[in-house]
Design brief:
single chain, 6-stranded antiparallel sheet, 21 strands, 13% helix, globular
């Protein structure tokens, strides 16, 4: 529904600073008394408190919120607690980029030949919770999930908010920094896009700093500091979103996740053109074990006319594009495409995480129980969707998360993947 009240005003900076500083000074006084008591009792260590550091952190968080949360034409309250702002398309975060400032979103691109709706024995999960009541944004605006102070404070720092850990820069078919994968991939040619349908689940994520995702990777460069990726799919990330719902997301980087790129619209980069799809919003419905199966279709491809990388979600919904100037290797083409799942294993209690991948069940259980990718295709140099050749599947730890591929007349190239994480064979 549409909320009748506008966003609460931000207090004047000076007043806010005085209030925060007063609270911090009070905290310092309390800490000082506690420290004196601890010293008298012979305590060995006293935690130091630096009010200047806390004030700087507060100011960084507020500055980030002002930059990300743009003025809106309409505000929509989602049933799951999200607030969706309908932001004029030319004011979205992408247009803070120096190369885009003062411009407006481009019109629709040329779609790949062979683009059509595939035979479907499952139903679409293309709806998003914020829009189930029929709420929508006016034409000329884009729905943007509002970022809260709590969202930012869950991150390791305001500077890293919305960015993936740098450990993800290593090969997807090897363990790196606690990231584990079960993926299929093609390599050794020039690729101009990829397409797949993915069924959506709500896997259990064990700790707030872990996540579980299923996505397409379009990759250029090496797996060193020059890695370029474009990514789209669904993910459960309590740290990023504050809940355990599967959400539609995108990501990009041009330097192996170090300083460039971000999730969704959390930096200047991706240009959204759609007024009905909100990036980072929860997907509904989701698949159930031995129950209904719901999937989303994703297509990423390079527009042959302008060179930008476009994203389509569901039944022909153009979401937006990544400008080609963001990239080095992907400015021309991709050298690898990957499909599959990824989880983070922090080993918080010393054992392998119980965070689930996909449905949380192994691929051997098959349809209705395991998660899948189907109708896998790539886009060739002629802007045509074609079947995969020399397709490989690999899993870092098959006893924790596994993958099994196949080909048939209805699903084309497909695979089942995922698993429960910790079990008697995965410790």
């Amino acid at each position: 529904m549409v909320a009748p009240a506008p966003r609460a005003p931000t207090p004047p900076a000076a007043a806010a600073a005085v209030l925060v500083l007063s609270l911090l000074l009070l905290h310092v006084a309390v800490i000082g008394k506690c420290a004196a008591a601890a010293a008298a009792a012979g305590a060995a260590n006293v935690t130091s408190f630096r009010p200047g550091d806390e004030l700087r952190r507060y100011r960084r968080v507020q500055a980030l919120l002002r930059r990300l949360n743009k003025p809106s034409l309409r505000t929509i309250q989602s049933p799951d607690g999200d607030v969706i702002d309908c932001v004029p398309a030319h004011l979205q975060p992408a247009f803070d980029h120096p190369r885009l400032r003062g411009q407006r979103p481009l019109g629709p691109p040329v779609r790949p030949s062979g683009h059509r709706r595939r035979p479907n024995d499952t139903a679409d999960a293309g709806a998003q919770l914020w829009a189930v009541s029929g709420a929508s944004c006016p034409e000329g605006s884009v729905p943007v999930r509002r970022i809260t102070e709590a969202d930012v404070l869950r991150a390791s720092s305001a500077r890293r908010f919305g960015r993936a850990p740098t450990a993800r820069a290593r090969r997807r078919d090897s363990v790196s920094g606690g990231h584990e994968h079960a993926v299929g991939y093609v390599a050794g040619d020039e690729y101009y896009g990829a397409r797949a349908s993915i069924n959506v689940w709500a896997p259990t994520v064990s700790t707030a700093t872990e996540f579980s995702l299923s996505q397409i990777w379009v990759i250029g460069g090496s797996f060193g500091n020059d890695l370029n990726t474009i990514e789209a799919g669904w993910q459960v990330s309590p740290q990023l979103y504050g809940d355990n719902s599967p959400r539609f997301f995108t990501y990009w980087t041009t330097d192996a996740y170090q300083t460039t790129g971000c999730y969704n619209l959390l930096c200047s980069g991706f240009v959204q053109t759609n007024s009905r799809i909100a990036m980072g919003a929860a997907i509904s419905p989701t698949s159930g074990y031995k129950g209904g199966q719901f999937d989303i279709s994703l297509l990423i491809w390079k527009d042959p006319n302008h060179g930008n990388w476009w994203l389509e979600f569901g039944s022909g919904e153009l979401v937006g594009y990544w400008p080609s100037f963001l990239f080095s290797h992907l400015a021309s083409h991709a050298s690898m495409v990957q499909f599959g799942g990824e989880v983070v294993d922090t080993r918080a209690d010393g054992a392998h995480t119980a965070t689930q991948m996909g449905s949380g069940h192994f691929p051997g259980e098959g349809f209705g129980r395991s998660s899948y990718f189907r109708n896998l295709e790539v886009v060739d140099w002629d802007n045509s969707l074609i079947p995969l050749t020399t397709f490989h599947v690999t899993a870092d730890h098959p006893s924790c998360y596994d993958i099994q591929g196949g080909v048939n007349a209805v699903w084309g190239n497909y695979f089942y993947y995922g698993g429960p994480g910790r079990n008697v064979r995965c410790t």
